[in-house]
Amino acid sequence: MGFLVLIYLGIIVFLIAALWTVFTKAGQPGWGAIVPIYNIILLLKIAGKPGWWFFLCLIPLVNFVIIIMIYIALAKNFGKGGGFAAGLLFLPFIFYPMLAWGDARYSAQP
């Protein structure tokens, strides 16, 4: 049981480091990755979406559509396509590190 907890904590730390690097690549404070609510607001900013969309993320069922739209915009701003956005949605532990430490460059698009 303790071994599984260590693996879980290792994955969490790895994902925080990846998200921290993604935020830094986009010109946002990396520490924002570990602050609840603020990290969603920063993610909206990086994706080029308005901050009030945060409230849409609180509405059941609507939040699924909003998160998909955020991931599509995030992938687009890093020069990736819809398939990469699907990867961010379904396999974040693989695609966030690819975004963080890969060759993706951030360019804000309206």
Structure description:
66% of the residues lie in helices and 0% in strands. The chain has 110 residues and is mostly helical. The protein has one domain (2-101). The longest helix has 24 residues, at 2-25. 21% of the residues are buried. The mean pLDDT is 94.
What is the number of helical segments per DSSP (H or I, 4+ residues)? 6
Mean pLDDT, all residues: 94
Radius of gyration: 14 Å
Assign a percent range to the helix content.
55-70%
The separation of the N and C termini measures 48 Å
Number of strands: 0
Helix/strand/pairing category? mainly alpha
Tally of domains = 1
Globally, the shape reads globular
Low-confidence stretches: none
Largest sheet: none
SSE run? HHHHHH
Strand content: under 5%
Please describe the topology of this protein.
Blueprint: H1 2-25, H2 38-47, H3 53-56, H4 62-77, H5 82-90, H6 92-101
Helix pairs in contact: 1-6, 2-4, 4-5, 5-6
Q: Features of this protein?
A:
mainly alpha, single chain, 0% strand, 110 residues, 66% helix
Concise structural overview:
66% of the residues lie in helices and 0% in strands. With 110 residues, it is mainly α.
